[in-house]
Amino acid sequence: MEQDKNNKMPKFSMSWIYAIVIIGLLAVYMMGGDAIGGSASRESTYYDFKAFVNKGYASKVVINKDESTLKMYVKPEHIRDVFHTGTDQTGKEPYVVVEFGSIDKVETFLEDETKAGKFTGELSYENTKNNPLINLLITMAPIIIIVALWLFLMRRMGGGSGGAGGVFNVGKSKAKMYEKGGEINVTFKDVAGQVGAKQEVQEIVEFLKNPRKYTDLGGKIPKGALLVGPPGTGKTLLAKAVAGEAGVPFFSMSGSDFVEMFVGVGASRVRDLFRQAKEKSPCIIFIDEIDAVGRARSKNPSMGGNDERENTLNALLTEMDGFGTNSGVIILAATNRADMLDSALLRAGRFDRQIHVDLPDLNERKAIFKVHLRPVKTDPSVDVDMLARQTPGFSGADIANVCNEAALIAARHDKEFVEKQDFLDAVDRIIGGLEKKTKVMTANERRTIALHEAGHATISWFLEHANPLVKVSIVPRGRALGAAWYMPEERQITTKEEMLDEMCATLGGRAAEELFTGHISTGAMNDLERVTKSAYGMIAYAGMSERLPNICYYNNNEYNFQKPYSETTAKVMDDEVLKMINEQYDRAKALLTEHKEGHNRLAELLLEREVIFAEDVEHIFGKRPWVSRSQEIMEEEEGTAEEENSDSEPVAATEGNSSENVPSSETSKAEE
Q1: 373-377 contacts: CB < 8 A, separation 24 or more?
Q2: Is 513 known to be catalytic?
Q3: Catalytic residue among 260, 453, 489, 576
Q4: Mode of pairing for the β-strands spanning 41-44 and 95-99
Q5: What pLDDT, in 10s, does the model give residues 404-456?
Q6: Rounded to whole angstroms, how far apart are CA atoms 163 and 186?
Q7: Contact indicator for 662, 487 with CB cutoff of 8 Å
């Protein structure tokens, strides 16, 4: 019992000493600094002061000009007359504090008493600023501030450890450890799509749960796996699922956590991280955004070949290849810039596997929508298949943003459920930006924009490989004054003919302006930028030029500041780009001239409605002469699904290998 009582006693710390010193200084200050000398004092009136001086009790007088007070020190032989007690209680130099009205009258009075022989002491003056305690505090203030700032910095660098000892913890790892049943509750059930990536990651979890299944056959557990893919595709989410499923300690940190202002700290943190991991083996280490420390090292010493980042990378390379075989420590890392990583980091024995987490295809987008729609109160009219087809190229993060934006739009309109139109508006909001119907435009500007967007729609309608049209709008969104929405086909490879058709459709807006208004404007700037980049890519990288066939000048070396081709070749590239773009521009003008009447009707309809859909274009030009590959696959899937399952709805039969499908006329009517 006595031991328990002792344990409950508060522990002594330096804070106690600081508090005692501060309280003592405040007490001395409140007592005026005179308590140390032991002299007593009392307040008195100016009338009594004059009487004391007249009787010869004053030994000296000290006047404080700032406070309009004076101190009259009493002679030792007259202490009892003034304080009615002896020197044992009052001290050797007791004084009387008196407030006065005018210092001139006090000085005149003391001069008269001096001439009369009643006051033989001295008259002096003091200032409050001359208080020794205050002077000491002012002198010590800079030192106190510097010491306090130093202690604060040491605590921050030490991760919250007390005192100056915190500086010794600056090299400690900042990794957070998660164990089974901890904070992370994400499992593989919460990860939609990415079937291949999930399968490989699940195998890593199986390695840790049942290693003998693989080692008994002579195999070695992989030491590391690198998750590679565009931003927002779910790399970090997969790592969280591993942490939730593995049942082993999971160390998580970012690549930037290794970076510090002090030299050598990054390498020290790497060593400390792997030391902790070995102690908790079997376990998993996850390094997010590893390109912060894993970027390729420079081959040029003048470029800083011995900088802090490279020292950290060297320590990481050593630790990854340093621990023993089958030690049970597996490293997961995520990056969207795998081409920037050092080749030594990617070799077998360090990151044995590269798991590609790509943008989701049609079926995967359906699964992702179903996950993010769970907490959303949706209307029965919401069609997940249609939403998946409307979001080509969207990542998992983009789809989550669509669901959230749709819920916000519905709430903004005081709806009880999120409807289909809310999701379509959310997609438009994310792709094109916020509608700006209040933007002021002249009639000529609106007509030019309508002709421009109608030109895109007309050209794409009559080109075989152009993306199927969804809708056209002349309502300003973001920085765009108008836009045409297409349903891009997700192609694994793209032919030259397909790229030329897309280029021609992109130039349709500028061509329509020149043909039907007689002038060109800056409205096609974005179109021209896309076309120019596409043409240079076709010629310089894809080898699709007549004069430079089968040659690729792509170079991913970030430290190479010279072009991998001569100036003569650059001139040939420029000529080929100009020739290719001009050919497609002339082609676009020829198509618009051929379908001049339909284009004008389309532009007038745009001016009238501001937004038109694919069925309106079909009403003007007739059925599109070219059937897209996705339409063919969708029709085949619908026929197969009807044979296999007569109860299934036709719209659900789009689950196949097709990437995108054109919305039906029924969908377009609902949108309108």
Answers
A1: 373/403, 376/403, 376/406, 376/407, 376/418, 377/416, 377/417, 377/418
A2: no
A3: 453
A4: parallel
A5: 999 999 999 898 899 888 888 888 888 877 777 677 778 888 899 999 999 99
A6: 38
A7: yes
